[in-house]
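Course assignment 3, question 2. Fill in each field.
Student: A.L.
Task: Predict the tertiary structure for the chain below.
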Amino acid sequence: MRIATWNCNSIRTRVDRAVAFLERHDVDVLALQETKCRDDQFPLLPFEEAGYEVAHVGLNQWNGVAVVSRVGLEDVEIGFPGQPTWSSGEADPVREARALGATCGGVRVWSLYVPNGRSLDDPHLDYKLAWLEALRQAGQGWLAGDGDAPIALMGDWNIAPLDEDVWSVSYYEGKTHTSDAERAAFRGVVEAGYADVTREHTPGPGTFTYWDYTQLAFPKRRGMRIDFCLGSPALAARVEGAFIDREERKGKGASDHAPVVLDVRPTAP
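Answer field:
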């Protein structure tokens, strides 16, 4: 089974590219982030015509996550246990559309859009760290309930866990995505039992998944590696390969993220 994750940065803008990506790489399951639309605005028809089912949660023009599958879409779950809410200003706290789980072909796939953090002195960073801690606890609980469960925590983590995951360590000094607290939060999910199953197959400095739109970041190779799949032990044991579709970042109308693709071996008879 081939599963992938992609921050599409508006599915209504890039639905044609998304469907073409699925067909080009023969993808079975795709976790999408930053769909940037309400549920009633999601462009279902092109995916359905291509043979895929869709589960989506979106509240407004911000955030939004989906799971697209042609191998089944069962036990859809919006948000994970303990997922924090966010409130800016005087608005009521809202559980943002940042997490969606579904069982696809026997694999529990979570599409995750981790909060950005904004800056080191912004309350949004506290929200980000609380969000990741809640995810760590939920993930730990899932494995405690079933240690053999194949689980894929896929998405835009908004964290570069290693120095080699950014084009310039000095440039990101004092900024989010590389702070000790954020990296520790990422390690916490790993230590809860989830392995980074893509890095072994896509090694090396300069292996990025995100490039800003400004200042010619992509042609200058000024990127970050912030999109990952963390797999449970049962899933990690079945991973045969992975790649980053850097070509998808090219051309008119590209997202600022590249898809990350994972090949998972079927279970033994």
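Instructor remarks: The longest strand covers residues 107-113. The two ends are 15 Å apart (CA to CA).
Grade: pending
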